[in-house]
Amino acid sequence: MAESQGADGAGAGPGAEALDVRAHNRRMWDRQVRRGNRWTVPVSPAEVAAARRGEWAVQLTSSTPAPRAWFPPLAGADVLALASGGGQQGPILAAAGARVTVLDNSPAQLERDREVAAREGLELLAVEGDMADLSRFPDAGFDLVFHPCSNSFVPDVRPVWREAFRVLRPGGVLLAGFVNPASYVFDQPAAQRGELRVRHVLPYSDLADLTDEERAAFAAEDEPLAWSHTLDDQLGGQLDAGFHLTALREDRGRETLDAYMPTNVMTRAVKPA
Ligand SMILES: C[S@@+](CC[C@H](N)C(=O)[O-])C[C@H]1O[C@@H](n2cnc3c(N)ncnc32)[C@H](O)[C@@H]1O
C-alpha cells in the first residue's frame, strides 16, 4: 500500500511487510508529544520540589502510583528509567536522590526529560535507544530498572526482561507496568465508542491483525503500533530471565474494559544476590 506523507515526511500508513516498527513508533511518539498526550507532559516545579523533600510518587501504570515500599533506597542509587521518557518519572527519581539514566526511543520524549533536568538543575542522562537492546550499558550497573507501561510497543518483550536482568546488580530491583492482554481481544474503534465487541484471538498484533487501511487510520491519529503479549511472556518472561517476582498489583487503566476489570498490572521483581 502506498504511504501518504505527513508534515515530518513520515508515511501515514505503512503496509505490514515493509514496516520498520522502531522508526514508525519513534515518529508516532514524537507526534504524541506535539499532541500533548498524558504520558508526554513533564512534571511541574512543585512536584520536583516535593520530591527533593522526600514527598514523591511515580506511575508504573495508569491510576495508582507504584508502592513506595517496592523501591530500594534512592539516595545515590543508579536507576535506569526504561522506555520512560516524557519528563515524568526520571526527573522525580533524580530529585529524590537517584542517579538517573532515561532510555527511550523518542527524541521528543527525551527532550522533555532534558528540559526538566535543565530547569531544575537535576543530573540526568537521557539516551535514545531500544528497550530490547541495552548493549550500550555494561552488566550489573544499575540498582533499579523502572519500566512503566510501554512494552506493548515492541513485538517481543522477552529480550526486555533479559536485558533488564543483565544490567541490574545482584539484589537489584525491576519495577514494571504492563497492560493485561485481555484488553486486546476487543475491536479497538468500537471500544473507543464504549462498545466491547470481541474480535481478536490473542496474542494480538497491530501489525498482523489489522488491515492496511485500519493501520493507516491509526497512523493518521499518530497512534503507535502495539502488541498484546501474553502473561507467559510478561510474567513467565521475567521468571525465565532469572528474576524472583516479589509483588504484583492490578490497577485501573482508562479503557472501556476497565469498567469490568482492571487492565493494568504492576510487578516487583528482584535479581537474586
Ligand atoms: C506510555 S509512554 C511511557 C512514558 C511515560 N513516562 C510513562 O509514565 O509511562 C511509552 C514510551 O515508550 C517509548 N517507546 C516505545 N517503543 C520503544 C522502544 N522500542 N524502546 C524504548 N522506548 C520505546 C515511547 O517513546 C514512549 O516514551
Low-pLDDT sequence parts: 1-12
The description of the largest β-sheet is: 7 strands, mixed
What's the rounded overall pLDDT mean?
Answer: 94
Radius of gyration: 18 Å
Q: CATH H level of the domain at 16-172 and 206-227: which superfamily? A: Vaccinia Virus protein VP39
CATH-scheme architecture of the domain at 16-172 and 206-227: 3-Layer(aba) Sandwich
* Total strand segments: 7
Could you name the CATH topology of the domain at 16-172 and 206-227?
Answer: Rossmann fold
Q: What portion of residues belong to β-strands?
A: 15-25%
Main structural class: alpha/beta
Bound molecules: S-adenosylmethionine
The number of helical elements comes to 9
- Can you list the strand order of the major beta sheet? 3-2-1-4-5-7-6
The separation of the N and C termini measures 52 Å
Per CATH, the class of the domain at 16-172 and 206-227 reads Alpha Beta
Outline: globular
Please give a quick description of this structure.
The protein has 273 residues and is of the alpha/beta class.
Keywords:
binds S-adenosylmethionine; Rossmann fold; alpha/beta; seven-stranded mixed β-sheet
Descriptive report:
The protein has 273 residues and is an alpha/beta fold. It has a domain at 16-172 and 206-227: Vaccinia Virus protein VP39 (Rossmann fold, 3-Layer(aba) Sandwich), CATH 3.40.50.150. It contains nine helices and seven strands. The protein has helices spanning 21-35, 45-52, 89-95, 107-120, 158-167, 188-192, 206-209, 212-220, 231-241; strands at 78-82, 99-104, 124-128, 142-147, 168-179, 244-251, 264-270. It has a seven-stranded mixed β-sheet, with helices on both faces. β1, α3 and β2 (99-104) form a beta-alpha-beta unit. α2 packs parallel to α3 and α5 (158-167) packs parallel to α9. The site of S-adenosylmethionine has 22 residues, from α1.
